[in-house]
Amino acid sequence: MPSLFSRPLALFDLDHTLLNGDGDDLWCRFLLRHGLLQRDVQARNEQLGADYRAGLVSAHDFSAFYASLLAGRSPAQWRHWLQLFLVQEIRPRLPTAAYALVAAHRAAGHTVVLTTASNRVIAEPSAAELGFHHCIATELALEGGVFTGQVQGTPNMREGKCLRMHAWLIEQGLPPQTLASAYFYSDSINDLPLLSQVGEPIAVNPDPQLHQHARANGWHVLDVLGIGL
């Protein structure tokens, strides 16, 4: 088996992989705490989280709910809240091992890419904090410079992660075969479509289904979050 850092492309999921938590859930709770949402939103947030883990919610419905939380404001109007969110919620949940893992790939000369089902507005602060220059995320629609609350294009989730990854490869002038020699770090069975396409799939603090699949197929299993396997 090749040494751990011998390949040029390293892909990373974010939630429960590098971040000890779920960015969408944390963002919803953050907005509620600061009085920016109605309290009845929390029940829907919790249900979506459970349905996501069980694979019961569609990519569109999942992404559309979190897109709706940003509706009616411009990117500039959200900037202050996103910085506060980074300080209060994200940085405390990024373990040293997560920074180190990304930095090790970068130091080895690899191209590191964050690929997350979260929307770009929520994901980009985490991407910048971890030193990613490439971030593939669910895109949100704007109209007149204001978020509409709708998703734009294909959500970066499940099979959509594969489609968006292949589109990114084309944008970079890389052939699809690049994935055959790439790493992908993820915690979730929802990422099995893309994990199955890379040469080195790595399960990070995996959910039970992914853990079982990883063990059965001889994949690396890592504890990056320091919470045990």
From TrEMBL:
One of its GO terms (molecular function) is metal ion binding. InterPro entries: HAD-like_SerB, HAD-like_sf, HAD_hydro_SerB1, HAD_sf. The keyword Cytoplasm does not apply. It comes from the Bacteria. It holds the Pfam family HAD. Keywords: Hydrolase, Magnesium, Metal-binding. This is HAD family hydrolase.
